[in-house]
TrEMBL record:
Top enzyme class: hydrolase
Entries under Pfam families matching the protein: Peptidase_M19
Alphabetized InterPro entries for the sequence: Metal_Hydrolase (IPR032466), Pept_M19 (IPR008257)
Protein name listed in UniProt: Dipeptidase
Species, as recorded: Tegillarca granosa (Malaysian cockle)
UniProt cofactor(s): Zn(2+)
Keywords attached to this entry: Dipeptidase, Disulfide bond, Glycoprotein, GPI-anchor, Hydrolase, Lipoprotein, Membrane, Metal-binding, Metalloprotease, Protease, Zinc
Cell compartments where the protein resides: Membrane
Reactions catalysed: an L-aminoacyl-L-amino acid + H2O = 2 an L-alpha-amino acid
Coiled-coil residue spans: none
Source superkingdom: Eukaryota
Membrane topology value: Lipid-anchor; GPI-anchor
Subunit structure: Homodimer; disulfide-linked.
Entry EC no(s): 3.4.13.19
Amino acid sequence: MRQFTRNQVHKVNLRENTTMQWLHIKKEDMSEPKYPRIYPQTDIPRLKKGMVGAQFWAIFVDCGSQDKDAIRQALDTTAATHTWINQYDDAFRLVTTSDGIREAFKANRIASLIGLEGGHMLGNTMGVLRTFYLLGCRYMTITHSCDTPW
């Protein structure tokens, strides 16, 4: 999402269908090979229509960032996720436990959980893993599409 919005995710309106909200790509240009057909997959109308009660916001950064700026990119994406959850607090609630999911459901909110898609975002540091936990991340895939040194 950050890539396709040129790091302006705050301008994406989750109250409207996000399918064509890529800010810099014209609709007629979407068929060009340089723009993969990866459309935004989350917005409030579709979540409500699908009666979604909980969702994981997946934090992912490209494997090429491993040993470079993967931690920063993952933190930026996690911060953007927190921004959306807070901006749309009438629809979402950050949760970190199964009890939190039930409480969000009772409050008519979509329980929002956060997960890391790949251990390459840790920079081989347990302190980074603990930091992501403090930020609300509750799962991490060991690998996604790249290996980790550990």
